[in-house]
Amino acid sequence: MNKTKLLALSLITAAALITTGCGKGGDSNTTESSTANPNMTLEQKIKALKPLTMPGLEIKTIQELDDGYYIKLKAPSQAGNRTIPAFVSKNLKYVTIGNVYDTSTGKMIGLVDMKSKESLAAFTLGNPGNGGKFYVFTDIDCPACRSMEKYMSENNLLASTQLFVYFYPLDQIHPESRLKSQYIMSFEPAQRAAVADKVKSGQDTNWKTYSPSKEVIDQMEEMKKIADELSIQGTPSFYDENGNALDNDIFIQYLMQVNIQQRVDNSQNKDSNLTGK
User: Fold this and answer.
1) What's the pTM?
2) Which of these, 58, 82, 145, 267, has the minimum number of CB atoms within 10 Å of its CB?
3) Would you say 198 and 207 are in contact if contact means Cβ atoms under 8 Å apart?
4) CATH number for 151
């Protein structure tokens, strides 16, 4: 088997969640003491590395790669505990906080099969078609989320693309978002998109007196687990079927191209019907 070459990228936003300094979370760190004791297990040695012993930080999983170790860390954030990826070199001398990419494929290590998570979505927007399927995590009170949703709706960008919507309330920034999301989740899946629109517009304020059931709380927790697996940095966050994070602007450009192609195809089909070919 060919040796996989890895590239670890430091994310300033990820580092900021676990440090109080100015972006020092992505610095390489040399740790001699953790490898000095031959009786320590590999897991113990990795857990003893200096940047991974910060208060509030917890190692969830360790995956061995050809050139080192892919680590999933649990760290506090605005939305509660979240998962952050990290890479540790094989000799345990260097640690980088941030997404880890396989340079032979260009894909992130530790991706999530989003197709298997579709049943956990709050609701879907758009229509299945040539554009494929995509997945978004949104905060109901997020201004950027609302702006993007409005733009996609006004320009009919989901005419032939299906978008699975998951709630990711940022409690510290939008304290009402969680209860609004839970209220929306109390409705049948087919009704939730319409209810969400009414809640966002202020037409429906019944969420203020809503008391979430255990079922709804559990459904929200399942969405949060997916978000943790994806190491979401904020909202809106878009992903493809393999859990690859998508740039918001590039995603919108893709939808526009799909729509243009769809109109061209429809026009050609119409012409063919008229000419009988």
Assistant:
1) 0.67
2) 267
3) no
4) 3.40.30.10
What is the SS3 assignment for 226?
A: helix
Q: How far apart, in whole angstroms, are the C-alpha atoms of residue 187 and residue 37? A: 57
**Cβ distance 84 to 73 under 8 Å?**
yes
- Tens-digit pLDDT profile for the chain (277 aa)? 443 333 333 332 333 333 322 222 333 333 444 455 778 888 889 988 988 888 888 888 888 888 899 988 887 765 566 678 889 999 999 998 887 888 887 777 776 889 999 999 999 999 988 899 999 999 999 999 999 999 999 999 999 999 999 999 999 899 999 999 999 999 999 999 999 999 999 999 999 999 999 999 999 999 999 998 887 878 999 998 888 788 889 899 999 999 888 777 777 766 565 566 5
- Please check whether residue 86 lies inside any domain of the structure: yes
Q: How does 157-168 read in b/e, with b if 16+ C-beta sit within 10 Å?
A: bbbbbbbbbbbb
- Residue 74: which H helix or E strand, with range? strand 68-77
Taking each helix axis as running N to C, give the angle between helix 177-185 and helix 189-201, from 0 to 180 degrees, rounded to the nearest 10.
150
Residue 95 lies in a domain: yes
